[in-house]
């Protein structure tokens, strides 16, 4: 009969070299809405997947900086960020939800190309989860949503993307969009389907700014030789 080994090695810092008595266990850490134990950073160091269960995000946001009082709280929170937050989101505080949402970006490969209805469904995901950064990728370009709730700075990595780009008011017309850094900038410009939309534009600077009263799709070409 095969032997199943058990040990509380997760309460000690990970060894520098793997143990000789078999492959190490893979740990997933789930943080519930209860006070963090003093050894939470050790558990964190063992885990390859870290999940906050709703209000558990509050506990890490508040509790981890208390375990490192001599360090900057923001640096601690950035170091101990989740791979996933799950739940009905009735316990997580709004400022905590916003903080972690801004740290997450989901990259979706193969989201463009093929059947148009599938592409439209993938683009709809951008609007459905507009509070999370989601980037749709194909061999030729990327697409992401620029919510109207923010002013946007887009930093161009010219060795891998560009120069062709576009701003598209897919969800609703835009009565006023202003940009900087493009070959053909917009200044309080009205955009809508059946009228003007910004396609086949060119990035001119390494920093693009966009401000609009409507959600916009940003798209930029991906270079073939990256």
From TrEMBL:
Residues 150-216 form the Thiamin pyrophosphokinase thiamin-binding domain. This is thiamine diphosphokinase. It is found in: Cytoplasm, Cytosol. GO terms for molecular function: ATP binding; kinase activity; thiamine binding; thiamine diphosphokinase activity. Its main location: cytoplasm. It comes from the Eukaryota. CDD domains: TPK (cd07995).
